[in-house]
Amino acid sequence: MARHCVREPIGHTETMMRKVKLIFLVVLLGALCGSLWCPSDGSAQTPPNAPAATAILRGKVTTGPTVPVERAGGPPAIAPVAGASVNVTDPNGVPIASAITGADGTYRVPVAPGDYLVTVTPPRRMLRRFVPRQVTVTSGAPTVLDITLDTGIR
Residue 68 is part of which domain span? Predict the structure, then answer.
């Protein structure tokens, strides 16, 4: 019986090296993401160089009106906005912290006392653009900033 020698195709080694490099890159990025600031859930996120958070900014994001005509004694024509991104920046626009609203539209962001701009990005593009709101956060009791996004329904 004759023995046949099986040879690898010429490009097989190069393909294998590419796969190894890709796996290494994915593992490296995963390790970096674990040690850097990488949002992973709906909780508040703070960049690594932000001042110490000793105060709380909290509130509720709603949308309204939800019907063209609100009737006296009827249910309110507003609804909570779940999954909206609440972004807090300093007066110069430098990101300080962010949070995602819960199912009831509420958010809670730990920040240092100071002056901030707050913007909201709704989870759907159907709402009009939100104008940033200025807020001064003080230590002690939480600062409450409730935000209503206008639907444009009239």
Answer: 55-150
Domain count, the chain: 2
Q: What pLDDT, on a 0 to 100 scale, did the predictor assign at position 108?
A: 97
Regarding whether 137 and 90 lie in a shared domain, the answer is yes
Tell how far CA 78 is from the center of its chain.
23
Helices (H), 72-112: none
102-138: per-residue pLDDT in tens?
A: 999 999 999 999 999 999 988 876 556 577 899 999 9
CATH code, domain carrying 125: 2.60.40.10
User: Model pTM?
Assistant: 0.62
On whether both 82 and 140 belong to a single domain, the answer is yes
Please indicate whether residue 122 or residue 9 has the higher confidence score (pLDDT): 122
Distance CA 16, CA 68 (A): 62
Q: Which residue has the tokens 């709380």?
A: 56
**Nearest by Cα to 59 from 148, 150, 122, 146:** 146
